């Protein structure tokens, strides 16, 4: 069978067999055009064959995807860079690839934590990084000090008892975030600032409104955990970032509007580098945010007899707030900013105290949920051990209480069976709904590949559908064995094959259907040849 390969402006014929795999064809192309391919720790350079608009896998044979005589395949050389590092997030249980150059391995841990914060949306003060051996990495050291090589997977850990709280903030679930708040005052204030920061980064309006009502301010720095305030000289530079900076970095226009409406001080709020939200939004190329902030900063504030530019109005307001804080609570404010700790407070000393950032869950950290108290029954008194004289009035009160308690009337047997039947029917309905939801979650190809619904019409199959009584058992066991060895049910396998076939967009629908049928048969035959299905089992036919 002759096919044609289009590569870099040339159009060359190749004689191959119909059963040839795509990987073998790639080797032929590589030898013919003298293409150099490579694969190392930094990345790989490989060939990609495209037919009918879809890339071909090396394990497919040409006949499986409908490649016939005189078909044309497009060939191109692809370059793929591998991540320099991986970071496992203990909160979301996800692995974040860090696509950076090799020179990044010579930088400090603080630079890596800044990048991780921009990826996951956490303030740098709520997490730490650990080596694969569990050693905590400190900001002042370089990655080379911990012998971090290319492809190393680091671990992101958060404060003990914060896992559920941060997960609720990441999902924008206000009730879940409220449920796992701390009972300690300083920690509670810090958590509200963290919640406002994460809500600003991801654009959660409801969580933002709740945090603002709780007293968190968008122009105030998130800061650090109260047990780390004492070491303010060695803190990360990004602890001075405010929620307004996070919203500008992420380009959350609605959050920016909410913050500016809350306080115009957000317009002139500077980070440690002296950048205002307008500069940050311009740096990250968020056009809508830049236009909005520009219009606000060049606007005017009108009073009965004078109009003041917004910049001057913000400066006046800042001066007034500084004067108020200086006059009323100067000593308290200085103590909170410089030292921040009192006698009896818990402090964390790196390398000496027990680590408190190990991502322990709420319950394992020894916390009690104050938002959902559990009612407790009063303890029963030991009447036999009591030797006090009995008061007649107390007996009369006890009798009246017993008379007040009435049990519900007993139902007859028919009513009880009817209630039991209704309960069983409702339980079956709940099970059916749960199974439908599970199917929708499992079949990730359903949104892009609509299938006809399963027929519920009660009609009888032909009598020859099962030849013998034992054939029913063989048929069911074949399906069970297929699901066990492939990890998918026959219907899920059919959906997967249809999704793969639908990527051949230049083919007609009937041709895509034929490709899907071939791929489905091929997957079953592969299991049979590899020993997945035993010889006594008949390979089930996938009904598309």
The CATH homologous superfamily of the largest domain corresponds to Ankyrin repeat-containing domain
Strand content: 5-15%
Instruction: Please indicate the count of domains.
Output: 4
Q: What is the average of the pLDDT values?
A: 78
What's the total number of strands?
Answer: 13
Which value, in Å, is the CA radius of gyration?
34 Å
Q: What can you see in these coordinates?
A:
By secondary structure, the protein is of the alpha+beta class. It folds into 4 domains: 2-80, Phosphatidylinositol 3-kinase Catalytic Subunit, Chain A, domain 1 (Ubiquitin-like (UB roll), Roll), CATH 3.10.20.90; 83-158, Ubiquitin-like (UB roll), CATH 3.10.20.90; 179-298 and 340-370, Alpha Horseshoe (Serine Threonine Protein Phosphatase 5, Tetratricopeptide repeat), CATH 1.25.40.20; 437-451 and 464-544, no CATH class. It is 41% helix and 12% strand. β3 and β4 form a beta hairpin. α5 (185-202) runs antiparallel to α6 (205-213), α7 (243-250) packs parallel to α9 and α16 packs across α17. The longest helix is centred in the last third of the chain and has 30 residues, at 413-442. The protein starts with a strand and ends in a 15-residue tail after the last helix. Mean pLDDT is 78; it is low at 333-339, 370-376, 381-405, 440-448, 455-475 and 533-544.
